[in-house]
Amino acid sequence: GENVGLHLPTLSVQEGDNSIINCAYSNSASDYFIWYKQESGKGPQFIIDIRSNMDKRQGQRVTVLLNKTVKHLSLQIAATQPGDSAVYFCAENIGRGSQGNLIFGKGTKLSVKP
Amino acid sequence: ETGVTQSPTHLIKTRGQQVTLRCSSQSGHNTVSWYQQALGQGPQFIFQYYREEENGRGNFPPRFSGLQFPNYSSELNVNALELDDSALYLCASSLGRSGNSPLHFGNGTRLTVT
Fold first, then answer.
1. Top-confidence residue, A95 or A54
2. CB pair distance less than 8 Å for B104 and A100
3. Residues of chain B positioned with their CB less than 8 A from the CB of A105
4. What is the pLDDT of residues A31-89, one digit of tens each?
5. Which residue of A3, A6, A44 is in closest CB contact with B105?
């Protein structure tokens, strides 16, 4: 399958622990942010999104935090499971008129040890 | 609900040739975006189609072109293939063109140019 994790920053966690994946975004005009999970041989899978008028949003086992002051986004995964092993990308949209252009970060490889 | 499907899954072409990649959008989605993902990198925006017209384009040369059909399916055409065009080509569909709804990706077409 696709080796999407080649030469990426890697986060290694023990099964059951919480994971925190960080992302610095580039444009202060960005108003919409998404986290994607990409497993080997597959396309990116939507995890959670957040708009710039919020600073926190929770999903099932995942939480996204947005700090617009320092242009920082994080994804927290609770009780990390082996199935969470993948490459995680943050993506930003720079606002109206950008015609749907998402700008992706470089990605972080999450490795979960059983 | 049918997800985004892409064909073919893998393709090998020779430098200078032309290629057409196909995508069927998720049911109910009227917007299709194409991305190029080089090995170990995040996806890069090529262009987006909405109501059969190009609705935004990334930093790709004119030999990258596309079409969207009345049923919202789409094609990506690349002429005069170069070795650097070797990548995973991802199609994503969404509802609306504003860029403020999540893109749902297919599993991509892996193109190898020799």
1. A54
2. no
3. 42
4. 899 999 999 999 999 999 999 999 999 999 999 999 999 999 999 999 999 999 999 99
5. A44
Calculated CA dihedral for residues A90, A6, B106, A47, nearest 10 degrees = -30
Please state whether A89 falls in left (phi above 0), alpha (psi between -120 and 50) or beta.
Answer: beta
Nearest to A98 by CA among A31, A43, A45, A28: A31
H-helix segments, B21-81 = none
* CB distance B72 to B30 below 8 Å: yes
> pLDDT category, A2, cuts 50, 70, 90?
very low
Q: Which residues in chain A touch residue B99, judged by CB atoms under 8 angstroms apart?
A: 32, 93, 95-96, 98-102
Contact residues, chain A, for B41 at CB < 8 Å: 106-107
Contact A93 B104 (CB under 8 A): no
